[in-house]
Amino acid sequence: MNILKKIQEYACRRPEQIAIRCGDSALTYGELWNYSDGLAAWFLQTQGDDRSPVAVYGHKDPWMLVCFLACVKAGRGYCPIDRSVPQTRVEMILQAVPSGVVLTTEAMTADAGTKQVLVSEELKALAEKKHPEVPETAWVSGKDTWYIIFTSGSTGTPKGVQISADCLNHYLDWSVGLGSAAEEKDGQVFLNQAPFSFDLSVMDLYTSLASGGTLYCLEKTVQSDYRLLMQSLGASNANVWVSTPSFAEVCLSEKSFSEELLPKLQVFLFCGETLGNRTVQKLQERFPKAAVVNTYGPTESTVAVTDVLVTPQMARETEPLPVGRAKPGTRIEIRDEAGTVLPDGEKGEIIILGDTVSTGYYRQEELTKKAFFEQAEGAGVIRGYHTGDKGYLEDGMLFYCGRIDLQIKLHGYRIELEDIENNIRRIPGIEHAVVLPNLRDDKVKSLTAYVVERELPKAEREEMARLKQELLQFVPDYMVPKKFVFLEQMPMTNNGKADRKKLAELGKKPERKGMV
Ligand code: AMP
Predict the structure, then answer these.
(1) How far is ligand 1, taken at its centre, from the CA of residue 221, in Å?
(2) CA-CA distance, 430 to 467, in Å (whole number)?
(3) What pLDDT, on a 0 to 100 scale, did the predictor assign at position 515?
(4) Which of 57, 204, 282, 397 could join 104 in a cystine, given CB atoms 3.0 to 4.6 angstroms apart?
(5) Beta carbon of 358 within 6 Å of any ligand 1 atom
(6) How far is the CA of 296 from the centre of ligand 1 (A)?
(7) How far is the CA of 407 from the centre of ligand 1 (A)?
(8) Does ligand 1 lie within 6 Å of residue 322's CB atom?
(9) Is 384 in the pocket of ligand 1 (CB under 6 A)?
C-alpha cells in the first residue's frame, strides 16, 4: 500500500467525507489533503534541504493530522507529542529532534530553545495560502522515516523509535483486514482512544485513513468523565473499536456500555496489554454481534504483528488467551538466552523478524545495536528485534507470558508477576489486578497485589483471606501475594495501560487508602 496515494484517492473521490472528528472540530478528506499540501509547500519553500524530523505538539485536534501529513509530504518524518507528556520530557524530545521548526495545535509551556514554534493560527494561515503543487517526489517513501515515537527507556531518557514509510505501509496492508474483510471497512467510523504519541493510535488513525473511514477521537477530558464518555461513545456511531484492554475495562464498569449504546460496533481491536478472559466474556455478553480481536506487538515493530479472533469458546476455555498468529511478512521466533530457536511449547524471548521492524532508535546507535539485528534470508536480509517479552508458540499461535524484566526471584523462586495477575483475574469478582514486588536492598522481600473488584469490599481482611484461598487453586503458595490493596479504580498511564509506577508510589505510602 502507498498510504499517501490512498488518502489522495479518497480526497479526490469523496472530498466531503469526514476524515477526522475531535469534539466539535472536523476535517474532510478534501480539506485534510489541501491543508497538508499547503503546509508541506511552506516547508519546501522555506526550510530548504533540512529533512530532519519535526516535532508536532498538541492533543486530539484534526490539525494534528494536517501537520503529520504535511511533514511526510515535505519529505520529513514527524514526532507526535501529546499535551499529557510532562514538560521536561517534551524538552528532551525537542532537543533530540534537530529540525528548526515545531508545529503546535495549542500553546506549549515547554522551552523550545531556538526553534521556530508555529502555533495553530499560523499553521492555518500557511495551510490556506495559495501554493504550488507538492511533487510526489518530495514525499517520504521507502526506508525514509515516517514517524518517530518516543517510548520510555530504562535509563530514564526516552528512546525515539523510527518507523519508515515501508514499515507503515506493510503494517497497513494487514491492518485494514483486521476483524473483517478490508472492503467492509470502507467509510466506517474508527474510535481513537490512545494519544497520538502512543503507537496504538496508529492502528486507528492510519487504518481508518487507509480504508476511507472517519476517525472519531475521544479526548482526554471526555475519557476521564464517565458521563461525557458514554455520551460521546453514544454519539460516535462507531464501527471499529481500538483501545487498550484497560480502557475497555473502565467502560465495562458502566452499565450503559452495551450494544444499545454502540449498535453499529462490529469489532473490538485490542493491543498493548494482556487481554483478560473475563473482559472478553463481558464484552461478548454486552456486544453479541461484535468480534473481539487480540493483537500483539511493540512500537519497535509498527504497532502490532499478530492477531487472533477470540471466540466465546476460547474466552471460556483458553486461559491465558493467545495473542495471535504472525501477520504476513512477519516471523515470530522464540529464542533462549544463547540465541537458540526453541521448539513449540518452550518459553523464551519473543523475537520479531520481518517487514515492519523499525530501522532503530533515533540517533542511538548503541541501543539500536543491542535491540535490533539483521539476518540473511534467501537472497536478501531481514531485520529482527529482541522484544524483551517472554512467550511460547503452539503451532504458530503465540502466547505471551509477560516481560522478561517483570520476572523476579522471591525466596529463590522464579516468578512472573503477570502470571500471578492473570490468575488473580480468574477469581470471581475481580475486575483488574496488578502485582508488584516489595524491595529491600534491591532484593524482593514480598509481593503486593493491587486489585479492583466489582465493589470495594467492606471487610477487607476477610476479602484478602478469600482471595488468597481462591488464588491457591491456581498457583503455588509462594506466588500468593502477602498483601492485597483494594482500589476503586486502577490508575492508568496516559497511554491507557495500568500505571505500575503510580502503584509503586502508592505502595510506599503508609496511610494508603484501602490497604490491609
Ligand atoms: P508499546 O511499545 O508501548 O506498544 O508496548 C509494547 C509492549 O506491550 C509489548 O512488548 C508487550 O510487552 C506489551 N503488549 C503488547 N501487546 C500485548 C498483548 N496483546 N498482550 C499482552 N501484552 C502486550
Answers:
(1) 25
(2) 9
(3) 39
(4) 57
(5) no
(6) 6
(7) 16
(8) no
(9) no
Using CA positions, which residue lies closest to atom 19 of ligand 1? 296
Q: CA-CA distance, 70 to 103, in Å (whole number)?
A: 10
**Which of 152, 202, 271 is the best mutation target for the ligand 1 pocket, counting ligand atoms within 8 Å of the beta carbon and taking the most?**
271
CA–CA separation, 371 and 420 (whole Å): 28
Task: Output phi, psi for 317, to 5 deg.
Answer: -110, -20
pLDDT tens digit sequence for 135-189: 999 999 999 999 999 987 555 567 999 999 999 999 999 999 998 755 556 689 9
Ligand 1 touching residue 386 (CB < 6 A): no
Query: Is the CB of 105 within 6 Å of ligand 1?
Result: no
pLDDT at 134 over 50: yes
Our answer on whether the CB atom of 276 is closer than 6 Å to any ligand 1 atom is: no
pLDDT of residue 516: 34
Query: Mind listing the pLDDT tens digit for each residue in 328-387?
Result: 999 999 999 999 999 999 999 999 999 999 999 999 999 999 999 999 998 999 999 999
List pLDDT tens digits, range 399-430. 999 888 887 888 777 788 888 998 899 899 99
For 18, residues 6+ apart whose C-beta sits below 8 A from its C-beta are: 26, 27, 28, 29, 214
- Its sign, for the CA torsion 340, 392, 346, 448, is positive
CA atoms within 13 A on the CB side of 209: 30
Cell digits of residue 134? 507538492
Q: Judge if the beta carbon of residue 418 lies within 6 A of ligand 1.
A: no
**Residue 422 neighbours by CB under 8 Å, 6+ apart:** 274, 276, 319, 320
CA dist., res. 219 & res. 194, Å (int) = 9
